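Could you help me review a protein record that somebody else here produced? Do not assume that whoever made the record got everything right. The record follows directly below this note.
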Amino acid sequence: MNLHDKEKQFLLQTYKRLPIEVDHADGVYIYGKDGKRYLDFLGGIAVNALGYNNARVKAAIMAQVNRYLHMSNMFYMDAQVDLAEMLCGLSGYSKVFLTNSGTEAIEGAIKIARKWGSKEKKTKLFALSNSFHGRTFGALSLTDRPKYRQGFEPFLPDVDHITFNSVEELQRKIDANTAGVFIEFIQGEGGVNVVSEEFVRELYSLKRKHRFLVVADEIQAGIYRTGKLFSFEHYGVHPDLVTVAKPIGGGLPLGGTLVDASLEQVLEYGTHGTTFGGNPVSCAAGLATLKELSEKHIDQHVTKIGNYFRQRLLEVKSRHDSLVSEVRGLGLMIGVEFKTECGEIVNRLMGNGILANCTNGNVIRLLPPLIIEQEHVDIFVDVLEKTVQATFPDAPVKEKSLQN
């Protein structure tokens, strides 16, 4: 029985897997068992910030493995404390609760918002339309995507949604009963949608008036993905809570809920916990990842490469404006929106040795390792353009500018 058949027999069929049997991966490339090499512009869905096989992260993992793999959270663990110290130092937040994943970080933030709200006589939580916050029940209650929600009703009470970037609806729905607003400043699963500055300004104006918590979901957009540690930094605001995961563990399961100093005492002994959250091996990998990213000034690199990438993609849009409607995003979190379904384009890209992702039906989502160089961008853009032309041979193509 081959691997495909075994997977189908023994695992619940909840994933639409790519037809690749991975042999190994290194840098920004994945290698199949058939010997084919793939340039990875999905990055484990924003997890592999340092690409694959990073020496510093591997060494940190092995050093911790040789000490111990797991210890109950009843004990003090230096790997946890050192990671928390660096994460709080980089972010400016007071404390962090460590989890196994992003959805657990969201669950922790929901509990903090509810507990804080209970003392303030506030119960209502809001998220935005087209949002994605995870698949556990609290996170799913916030998530506003029918394909994930259908059949799992009823959800948590007192949870509602505000149309993305609708200032009018924000003003109409937020009131004195609001405990918290959960927001992805850049929606990933929803199609790389960037929240408007006007919306953020009004959100904080209402926060001053009604006094509620703002929770930034930075699970996909955080840890330098947009050229800053967190995407909300582009707006000059300071949310009360921040959820992180994906790249924070260097490829191992790890997440966290960061809290402002004013919320330090909301959760007390016994009111929240986890058996595996903050696993020492994951924390060791996370600390090495943060050190590598910060010491290499990856924020500057992401800004530079991200700007170049967007410019190259805008050139593709200008030549294929009958097919491409928009290029958007920040840093190395980029969406290319097509005027048609993009699944076939992504499949053909894979056939041509490039891995990307089609989200929201018609948006190619690009989340490459943060270590990509200009040469990798050029390879991707050249293959993308050839793939688009081959997929839509009858679509008009404008001549390249002489400046190119």
Remarks:
- The domain at 55-295 is CATH 3.40.640.10 (Aspartate Aminotransferase; domain 2).
- The CA atoms of residues 318 and 398 lie 7 Å apart.
- The chain has two domains: 3-53+297-391, 55-295.
- DSSP finds 13 helices and 17 strands in the chain.
